[in-house]
Each structure stands twice: as structure tokens, then as C-alpha cells.
Amino acid sequence: MTAKSLLTALLPLVSDLSRELPEGERYRRLLEAMRALLPCDAAALLRLDGEWLVPLAVDGLSTDTLGRRFKVSEHPRFEALLSGPGPTRFAADSDLPDPYDGLVDGLDDHLEVHDCMGCPLFIDERPWGLLTLDALDPERFEPIELDALQAFASLAAATVNAAERIERLNNRVEDEHQRAEVYRQASGQQNREMIGQSKAHKRLVEEISLVGGSDLTVLITGETGVGKELVAQAIHAASPRADKPIISLNCAALPDTLVESELFGHVRGAFTGAMNDRRGKFELANGGTLFLDEVGELSLTVQAKLLRVLQSGQLQRLGSDQEHQVDVRLIAATNRDLAEEVRSGRYRADFYHRLSVYPLLVPALRDRGRDVLLLSGYFLEQNRSRMGLNSLRLNSDAQAALLAYDWPGNVRELEHLIGRSALKALGNCKERPKILSLSAADLDLPNAGVEAAAEHPVATVMQAATGDLREATERYQRQLIGACLERHNNNWASAARELGLDRANLGRMAKRLGMK
């Protein structure tokens, strides 16, 4: 590698350092430049977050990789890369399992990565993350000098540093994250992450950031399984109360006779079985946040008593006349239409208006496009770890089935589906595989019409075609190429591999068909 080629690859990145770019675009350019400098089949940038590695950008790997969270202790190659001061190249015959086996984009065969190298990134002399390069050819990296990767890694660290500085200046989130982490560690709660890149998801995140900094009461609405509790936790983490507790209560899980005791507490002798004084959820959440899930299930009596606490901040424990003052930020959630409940007389109008100061709708999974693949990657990695597999992945037909399904149970349904399908697929294997791939048949989704169209696309197109043969053929080609590009997130190289075409030929064909 010549100094000129190295300089040519690095100059655009140097220019980007002074530009304000979206984080995703900045990291995409970084990997694009690295693949131009160091040819490979797949590249990734991962951030170290405690004991986990979080993919920030991938090039040449399946979309669901972005949703995965790799526990370092379960991936010896990542451990080896992080423990070294500089680049490491693994021997082609290394027996260490590769985290990306089966994840190279556009390949449904159980192909394992054969040539692998990577480099840790350091910021302020502390490990920040990793750059990784992988190839299916065991001799791909033979002529590459590790010094070139080290030089690139130094500039990558500067790129990451610039991106993080810009983010801190724009959002001032560093202190909020530190406070949330202090409370998370003190309470033993797992740091749960909101995963997605769709426009609907980004709008939700923006609203969370907006309302999080206030003390307004928030009413989170949305279908069952969309993740309303996760949204409540995100609002709390973005608030000035983040270093205080968030206390949760599922209002549908308790009978009316116990809801008041759970909310307001009780004194000894207040009812049969009340052997000691007990603080309720409001007092436990004092200074922090109280999250009431399934708030639509509360009785009219409890609504009236809650309204008083929300108005005055004062409450009485059951069986006591003593007033207790609390400072609590309330977040509520429901899958019911409370406005309709008010009109039908099943819900108090004054309580509803007190709850819905800031209504926040969580989008359904079917409205989030390709987020389903990122979430699938997250759940696949969880199940891979639980089942002790080297790799757990989706075939292209499984990805298409997930994208086509309507998801009435939303994210919770997806989580259960991935876990159930992985267990069944493993049970059907005569021998324990290194790479377990889930097909559309393993998922067993009710997409019979979609699957039939996918299996017989020519017949489907020809039935709808009008006009001469050339017009019908071109219509079919456009549909086939468009569907393939959609599956690969507009990655033309990956689409060309799946279609069995040279990338340049695919480009020329798309141009002729009016797709470019």
C-alpha cells in the first residue's frame, strides 16, 4: 500500500472532522473509506458500553447486526482485540468462534468468516470500541500491512471523538446519562435500550427528549406490546429526576381493595393482615417518578383519590388521618381509548385531563418499517447467548416474512416469536450446529399469501401484467430488483450478490429500467 493511496483514503475523513454531520452518516463514511483502503467483505464499528459491544455502523453485514448487543466475555475474538494495544489479525485456522459467522449480507449459505482482523479504538487513552474487518477469502488480508489499519484507527478515533463532542454540545446529555447510570447501578436495574432507526421511532425519541426535561404528566398510549414501559423509563432517564427512583405499578394486576394500599400505603390495623405501617408507591417515588401502567383499569373511586394527590401533592395512608407531602412526577400508560371511556361514563373527565397533559403515542411495530430487523437482531443475540450457539441468524426469506407480517402483538410478539422459533429450530437439528439459521418456515408466520408470491414471483407479476412481453418482463425485473434492494437496505453490492449479477451489470440494468 502506497502513501498516496493511504492519503487518498484518509483525506475525505479529515475534511469531515470539521463538518457537522449526523452521527450515522459520519460513521457510514468512515466504514466506506476503510473498505476502499482495506478491501473486505464486511466492516463494523462497535462502541464499548460496559461489558457489551454495541454496533454503531456496519457495511456488508446483515441489517439485524445493528440490533445485536455482543457481550464481550462471550466472544473471545472481541476480548482478544480489546486486550491488545494495536491491530490483530487472526489466523485463518483459528478455532475461536467469529461473532459474524453467518451474518455477511446477502448470503443464505452457512458460510463462516475465514479472514478476520480488527483494531481497538482509544479516546483519551481509554478503550472506546473496535473497528473490525472480515473476509470470506482466508488470504484476503495477507498483503495488508497492519500499520495501515493502525493509521486508519487513529483517524477513526478522531472521527468518533468529533462526533461525540458535537453530540454533547447539541444535546447536553452527558450529565443525564451519568445520573441515570448511577441510579441504574445502585438499583441493580438492567439498562434497557430503545432500538430503531425508522422515522416513526426517531420522532418518538425526539418527543421523549422534549418532554423528559419538563415535569409534565405524560400519558403514554399505544397498542399492547409496543414498549410503553420502556418509553416511561426513557422519559425518566432524560429528566432532572434521573438520579431518583422510578417506581412502577401495574394497575390491572391488583384488585381494587389492594390498589389504594399499594398507591398510598397503610398503617398497622388498617385492614385484616396489615401487621405493620407501610409506605405506598407515591412515598417510595418521592423526588422521582411514578409509572402507572394500565391506568385505564382504575376504578372511579381510586381515580378520585388519585386526583387529589395530583392536585395537592398530599396523601393519607389507609387507616390514618395524617397527611404526607410528596413530590412525584407521574407517567401513565394505557392501551385503551380513555377519551371514549370518558364519553361512556367509565372514566372521570377531570382525572383524564389531569393525566393527559402531554399525550405520547408509541407507534405500532408495523409502522416502523425495517426496525423489525434491528429488533430481531437484538433478540437473536439474546437467544444465541442463552442457547450457547456460535451464531443465530435469519435467512433472507425469514427477513422478508418479518417485514411483511402485521405484528398485532408488536415488539413483545416479536420477542416471543424469535425465542420460540430459535428453540424449535435447534430441536429439529440432529447435531448441534455452529450456525443456526432461521427460515420463514421456522418462524411459522401467517403469511401464506406473501410466501406464495415470493415463491412464484413470475406468475404473480404475469397475472397482473398487461401489454407486450417486453413491458411485462421489465415490470417483473423492476419488482424483483426493488424487493431485493429493500431487503438489503439499498446496498447494491449485496443485492447484486443475491441476484447473481455483477454489481456494474446490475447498475446498468437498473438505469435502463429507470430505477437510477
Describe the protein in words:
- Pfam families: AAA_lid_14, GAF, HTH_8, Sigma54_activat.
- This is Anaerobic nitric oxide reductase transcription regulator NorR.
- It comes from Pseudomonas fluorescens.
- Residues 156-186 form a coiled coil.
- This protein is of the alpha/beta class.
- It has helices at 3-16, 23-37, 76-83, 146-171, 174-187, 199-212, 228-237, 256-264, 281-284, 300-312, 338-343, 349-355, 371-387, 396-404, 410-427, 440-443, 448-455, 457-464, 469-487, 492-499, 503-512; strands at 42-49, 52-59, 70-71, 88-90, 115-123, 126-135, 218-221, 246-250, 265-266, 278-279, 289-293, 314-316, 323-325, 329-334, 358-361, 391-394, 435-438.
- The strands form five sheets. It has a six-stranded antiparallel β-sheet with strand order 3-2-1-6-5-4, sandwiched between helices.
- Strand 12 and strand 13 (323-325) form a beta hairpin.
- Helix 1 runs parallel beside helix 4 (146-171), helix 6 crosses helix 7 and helix 13 (371-387) crosses helix 15 (410-427).
Distance separating the two termini: 34 Å
Helix/strand structural class:
alpha/beta
Q: What is the tally of beta strands?
A: 17
Largest sheet: 6 strands, antiparallel
Number of domains: 4
Q: State the CATH superfamily name of the largest domain.
A: GAF domain
The shape, in one word, is: elongated
Q: What oligomeric state do these chains adopt?
A: single chain
Average of pLDDT: 82
Name of the CATH architecture of the largest domain: 2-Layer Sandwich
Strand order of the largest sheet: 3-2-1-6-5-4
Unreliable spans are 171-190, 448-466
- Number of alpha- plus pi-helical segments: 21
CATH topology of the largest domain: Beta-Lactamase
The CATH first-level class of the largest domain comes to Alpha Beta
Q: Which range does the strand content fall in?
A: 15-25%
Radius of gyration: 27 Å
Helix content: 40-55%
